[in-house]
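Changelog-adjacent note: as of this version, every example in the card shows the full chain rather than a window. The one below runs 885 residues end to end.
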Amino acid sequence: MIYLDHLLKATQGNLRQLSKHVHFQAFSHDTRQLSPHEMFVAVRGERGNGHDYVLDAVRKGATGLLLSGQTFQQLSEQTKSVLANEEITIVLVEDTRQALQHYARAILEIWHPTVIAVTGSVGKTSTKEAIATVLSRQFTTFRSWQNYNDMLGIPLSLGRLEARHEYAVLELGCDHPGEIAALSRMVRPQIGVLTNISPVQLQYFSSLEHLAFELGTLLTSLPEGGHFFYNQEDPIIRALLEQRVHQVSSTVTCHPFLPDAKGNAHEQPRITVGWDGIQGTINLPASSEHESSENDQATLQLRSHLLGEHNFATMLAAYQIGLSRGIYPSLVEQALTTLQPLPGRLNPLPGIRQSMLLDDTHNAAPASVKAGLQTLSALAGEQSQRIAILGDMLHLGDAATEAHRAIGQEVSQYADYLITRGEWATLIAEEAQLAGMDSERIIMTSTHEDAAQAARRILANLPDSDKRAVILIKGSEETRMERVTELLMARPWEASELLVRQTPGWKKTIFRHAERPTWVEIDLNAIGSNTRHIASLVGPQTQVLVALKADAYGHGALKVARTVLQNGASMLGVATVSEALPLREAHITAPILVFGYVPRWQMREALRLGISVTIYSKEEAQALSQAAQALNKTVKVHVKVDTGMGRLGIRFEEVPAIMELVREAKQLPGLELEGLYTHFAQADAEDQSHVRLQLARFQEVLQQLEAEGLRPPIVHAANSAGTLTLPEAYFDMVRPGIAIYGLDPSPYVRLPEGFRPALAFKTQVSQVKWIPAGEGISYGSTYITERPTRIAVLPVGYADGFRRSPQNWGSVLIHGQEAPLLGRVCMDQCMIDVTHIPQARMGDEVVLIGRQGEATLTAEEIASRLGTINYEVVSELLARIPRVD
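Full-length structure tokens:
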């Protein structure tokens, strides 16, 4: 509960508007998660500003607003007028983040609970919850909300603190140096708990030693008379204590999770793991807490419903703190038996086809992934198949490659099947295969849907239907692996209650971590869906080859390849041998056809990569044969016929030459005739006469080959437009390109309903300023302002494929409105007019292709402005623009 007088005193805030509401249920900084009677705190973040959503907060039932005074003055007069007429209390402060921190410190002083701070690399939330559960048996105990654990989250959480709370158990996280010290200064814990130290957030810590130093700051931040509990089984913690003992107040008492009353080394606990939870038993020397036995030992036995051996340390931490607070041992033990797995933390859920899911999707670090794999193996035993679905482990800095490969080694020991989702996770797959895991049991995917579908196929094809599969699902927070869990749940309607990140705010949140403030978003689910639409259209008798030319038309060839192969494509097409190389290096083994010219000096590379080659002359066929014999390999070839494109291929009139080349391809050593094809020049035209002429010519050639018994196994002709308009051109395979990416082949051949674009092109405002009348903008001063003009500078230019001339983009979208470009587009920047959009400010998202609110700017519309086609628009988005999905 938040009281207005406490808030004003703590923050030195200015009461801008007073209403009947003088106390509030809690703080909220996200209107998507806001509940009625809460105080909305407008926070400026890296990608947004909460002040843009004050009216939304009022509509959602907020009864208080905590705003920046400076930003409040910049709100539109219309917004201020609406607020003035609402029954809402408004407090203005200099900085809302700092105000929250001042409030957190003040409210802890006012209510003065005993603060217990829990930190560590992994297991913080579970340990916090276990400690709070134990203390609640005897004391009124507050626990920080969910995993709100940073300089913003903890103050937001402390909005729920009340005078009745005797203890406050708070989780402290850190992702940069100095954060634990700052958090400790804010909450001033009397008791500290350090769970473990292992690689996490190493992108901001140059080494594990620096991370250990940071976490150890909790110990040195404790006051005189404080208590520090630590996991003595962690060698890094033991070393840390030895190094920092001289920095600790002599009155701070250090307690290992498993103390030895006589100072002797304790034996290892005996831990059993089952679906009902874990039980740990250990013999300890007799002490005041334990009755002596004939061997002068006491037996400590703890049970809980938590899964995994690693959670025994969690139980020990809670046990020892409970005893230290004077709670009787039997009450502590009883409290521990009530512990249940938290959502996303090895939480067992019924899955499809009688499988059991281990939903461990809250987050992922090397230590927690290893613990999850060990738990998977222990619970599955010998009677169940073990399936691991693993996403990327993020924030590991320079240790990322080694960490993922190390997990690959673990997978080979603890899982029967591996499904990966994401690019870093492919390293896990590669290493698992090197460690001896059958490649047929390793599936690499790029989307949640494909990962879930791969698991479905495994479950459907298990040889013994009586065996119940156990599926571990895990990945870092940003990978949103809970979406995979939801797709595999036997009762998916329970997802909102059982999975992490299920609030409306989280449902709409998509992590976008680009290397620069201009980026391309790729919806791989759209690509998968579009591929399925094509496969359904042509039917099961016709194969689908997806064209990946020009880095999959600017969409990212590698991820697109994995996605289409999981959704109905059986072959891939590239323009050059060099385009095939990264696909093979990424362990994509599907057939690949090179459409373009392969010079003699690249033929051996084509053979090495095992790709199919297009031929259209005897000389090519003979050179390929020689290269194949030299390497003792076989290369598959497709003969190309030019039926009216006027590009590569033997002219259709030269039937004898075509037949001779086909015979050569069948007879020359090292060659295997795989296909025959042509390419349509006008399949996307309004007038279909030319494409039908080409089709007739191709059919005539094919008939003559069939008459001689020379028809290759795969005949193909239809591109995207042909696939959509000419079913008679399907033959054995179709070759869609632009349609896979959700773009219309032409104004005359539109995609059917159900297809959707996969690409959005975005940037951010880097500066907003006023330019007086009569001033020039950009190179050459080709645009002169006619009036005072408010411009926004965007960090995108022609070196990104954002066209400069002879025509440019014309306008872009900001705050759901079109803003015209002013002057010439520069190499890396451009300027737009936002005079009519007063709320535009630095950091705002700008859409160059895609949707923003109700407004859209399509690739087709941009193509029309530029006097070109949508193919060129998306394919010219240069590689320096990061692609995120």
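Structural remarks: Residues 689-707 form the longest helix (19 residues).
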